[in-house]
Write a structure and sequence with these properties.
By secondary structure, the chain is an all-alpha fold. The chain has a domain at 40-119. The protein is 50% helix and 0% strand. It is built from six helices and no strands. The chain starts with 39 loop residues before the first helix and ends with a helix.
Length: 150
């Protein structure tokens, strides 16, 4: 559109409006770092093999607090409850594996049970107290002590 020169310093006739430019929608820039993608399948597998919270956070490359907030956002529950749910599945499969291994390798099954399932060996200790006077067993020594106190 060409304008005829008039006395207007802007070069357009009086009363005419400046043509509007098309406005591009402004892109809203978000502050902070880009959000890390939370891989729930990998998280569940790591819980299943009993990785610690610190190990999981390091593998994802995030801080522990970030991991906890991602878990809360994805599962709508706190970290400890979600971890327990998937870790219990790992313990279940460990028990199954321990049972299968006990058929061929009992040492490995015992070690795994002690380390991850809290199993313990029972040690019974029998104590015999020997008096300096003579070789008196503990029950006889207790009887002797009871007689002296009366």
């Amino acid at each position: 559109m060409a304008y005829i020169k008039t006395g207007n310093p802007r070069g357009r006739p009086k009363g005419s409006k400046k043509p509007k430019k098309e406005k591009k929608p402004k892109e809203i820039k978000k502050a902070g770092r880009p959000k890390k993608i939370f891989n729930n399948k990998e998280f569940e597998e790591m819980c299943g093999i009993l990785c610690t919270q610190e190990e999981i956070a390091n593998i994802f490359g995030v801080d522990r607090n970030t991991l906890m907030s991602q878990v809360k956002e994805f599962y709508n529950s706190d970290f400890s409850a979600v971890y327990k749910r998937f870790a219990d599945k790992g313990r279940k499969s460990l028990r199954r594996y321990q049972y299968e291994q006990s058929k061929t390798n009992p040492t490995m099954a015992i070690w795994l049970g002690k380390q991850l399932l809290g199993q313990k060996d029972k040690h019974e200790v029998e104590q015999t107290i020997i008096s300096r006077e003579s070789d008196i067993s503990q029950p006889e020594l207790i009887k002797k002590k009871d007689k002296n106190e009366q």
